[in-house]
């Protein structure tokens, strides 16, 4: 430790005692912890503008009292066990509690601080990529390039929509792979930030937002934080019920529509091209913007995926969201909004309120990686791997069915998970699975309204772990399905 802030008792006349008392008080207050190194006599003498012998006298006083220890050539450190009796500790704890500020929390936390999915031996979370597949060594070279040859101007304030070379690469990728053109790109720290910003600029308290009855709770929370009332749309095996959506639009003043059309979250169904046209015409007729959350577009296996709704958007009402979390890893915190130019400036302006600048070095590195072709090479590799894991999970579950288990599922055309009908007791199965070290979510985790819960479905993610672990985890799950 090079420096230490001390609070002196000016009633003490002897300087070395004044210093020793201040150090002792810093230890009692927790500013310095047991076993932690203290400043050397030279450093502390310079900091306090006193003679080193005065500091040595102060330290010797604390050594005699049992607060400090010293070892040759290791300097001074706080004692392992402090000479503070339990009564004093209890008094300090009581005084701290009694004097604690009582916060007026307007928007209390609704976060679930339960054990995270990645701490389970078998993680069947539905949206997890396999981070071990990511080419960290390859990507490191592009990070190094960004540091060795940085754009000094871009590292300063400004360009709050994102780093221009990255925007160029993303625009090219969206144009070629997803057929999205004539959209402005705004870079954000992931889809959640995008949803928060959109909610803040398009919604006010009491506005109605139509969402899928089964869906992504964090997205709903971002919209509700803006004051929205969420209206659930009925779902079928073809996605949302378009007739029900039209009925809801006529009953409520719907201000926004949030959808996951390609691989509906969590059921994995794809909204057909015909239904997409019907939904879009309703949105045009009633002037309702659509948020299209295309969270895992790349991972489609049976055929070429349908183009996003944003690819055919003559009215410019689709707000398209895409993230690098599934492609790279969740900790990358990198996403984009593709939106009509008329709205882009408002998004950038609001984003600047909460974050002046996105991570330029990271965007620079990813842009270089995309230009080099490494981005699409990694995508091809991950897609091939996830396809094998999807087949592995389907084969194991089909074996269970052959052995008499009454489970049902439809093999999805894409995505990262299966939506499995276990008949009944879905919530109980998910809970018992966690006790065996398997992270699984039942349908009750995805319902907008719990009264719609049929307690029939569980979601099994296949992308985030090896085929061997899929087989081992499902073997542990099997007896729970058999009860």
Describe the protein in words.
The chain is α/β, with parallel strands linked by helices and 483 residues long. It folds into 3 domains: 15-98, Winged helix-like DNA-binding domain superfamily/Winged helix DNA-binding domain (Arc Repressor Mutant, subunit A); 117-129 and 378-481, Aspartate Aminotransferase, domain 1 (Alpha-Beta Complex); 137-372, Aspartate Aminotransferase, domain 2. The chain has helices spanning 15-28, 41-48, 52-65, 86-98, 136-148, 164-178, 191-202, 217-225, 242-251, 273-286, 341-354, 360-372, 374-402, 426-435, 467-481; strands spanning 68-71, 75-78, 122-123, 184-188, 208-212, 229-233, 235-236, 239-240, 254-259, 290-293, 318-323, 335-339, 408-409, 417-421, 438-439, 441-442, 457-461. It has a 7-stranded mixed sheet with strand order 4-12-11-10-9-5-6, sandwiched between helices. It has a 4-stranded antiparallel sheet with strand order 13-14-17-16, covered by helices on one side. Helix 10 (273-286) links the parallel strand 9 (254-259) and strand 10. Helix 2 crosses helix 3 (52-65) and helix 7 crosses helix 11 (341-354). 36% of the residues are buried. The mean pLDDT is 92.
DSSP helical segment count: 15
Order of strands, widest sheet: 4-12-11-10-9-5-6
What low-confidence regions span 5 or more consecutive residues with pLDDT below 50? none
Q: Give the radius of gyration.
A: 29 Å
């Amino acid at each position: 430790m090079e420096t230490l802030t001390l609070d002196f008792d000016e009633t003490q006349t002897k300087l070395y005692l004044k210093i020793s008392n201040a150090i002792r008080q810093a230890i009692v207050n927790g500013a310095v912890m047991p076993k932690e190194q203290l400043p050397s006599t030279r450093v502390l003498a310079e900091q306090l503008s006193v003679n080193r012998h005065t500091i040595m006298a102060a330290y010797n006083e604390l050594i005699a009292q049992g607060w400090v220890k010293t070892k040759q050539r290791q300097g001074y450190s706080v004692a392992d066990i402090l000479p503070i009796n339990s009564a004093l500790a209890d008094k300090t704890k009581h005084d701290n509690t009694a004097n604690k500020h009582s916060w007026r929390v307007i928007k209390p936390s609704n976060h679930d601080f339960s054990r995270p999915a990645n701490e389970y031996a078998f993680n069947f979370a539905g949206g997890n990529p396999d981070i071990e597949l990511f080419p960290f060594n390859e990507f490191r070279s592009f990070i190094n390039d960004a540091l060795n040859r940085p754009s000094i101007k871009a590292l300063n304030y400004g360009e709050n929509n994102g780093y221009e070379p990255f925007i160029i690469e993303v625009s090219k990728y969206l144009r070629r792979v997803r057929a999205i053109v004539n959209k402005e790109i705004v870079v954000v720290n992931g889809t959640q930030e995008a949803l928060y910003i959109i909610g803040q600029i398009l919604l006010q308290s009491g506005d109605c937002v139509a969402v899928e009855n089964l869906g992504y709770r964090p997205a709903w929370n971002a919209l509700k934080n803006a004051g929205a009332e969420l209206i659930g749309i009925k779902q079928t095996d073809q996605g949302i019920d378009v007739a029900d959506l039209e009925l809801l639009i006529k009953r409520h003043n719907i201000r926004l529509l949030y959808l996951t059309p390609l691989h509906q979250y969590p059921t994995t169904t794809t909204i057909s091209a015909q239904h997409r046209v019907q939904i879009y015409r309703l949105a045009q007729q009633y002037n309702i913007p659509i948020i299209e959350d295309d969270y895992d577009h790349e991972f489609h296996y049976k055929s070429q995926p349908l183009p996003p709704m944003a690819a055919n958007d003559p009215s410019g009402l689709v707000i398209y969201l895409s993230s690098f979390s599934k492609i790279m890893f969740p900790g990358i915190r990198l996403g984009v909004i593709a939106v009509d130019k008329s709205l882009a400036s408002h998004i950038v302006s609001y984003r600047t309120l909460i974050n002046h600048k996105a991570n330029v070095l990271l965007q620079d590195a990813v842009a270089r990686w995309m230009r080099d072709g490494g981005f699409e090479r990694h995508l091809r590799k991950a897609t091939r791997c996830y396809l094998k894991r999807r087949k592995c999970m389907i084969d194991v579950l089909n074996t269970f069915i052959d052995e008499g288990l009454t489970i049902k599922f439809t093999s999805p055309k894409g995505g990262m998970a299966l939506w499995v009908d276990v008949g009944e007791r879905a919530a109980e199965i998910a809970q018992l699975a966690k006790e065996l070290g398997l992270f699984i979510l039942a349908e009750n985790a995805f319902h907008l309204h719990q009264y719609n819960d049929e307690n029939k479905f569980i979601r099994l993610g296949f992308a985030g772990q090896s085929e061997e672990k899929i087989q081992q985890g499902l073997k542990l799950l099997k007896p729970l399905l058999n009860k």
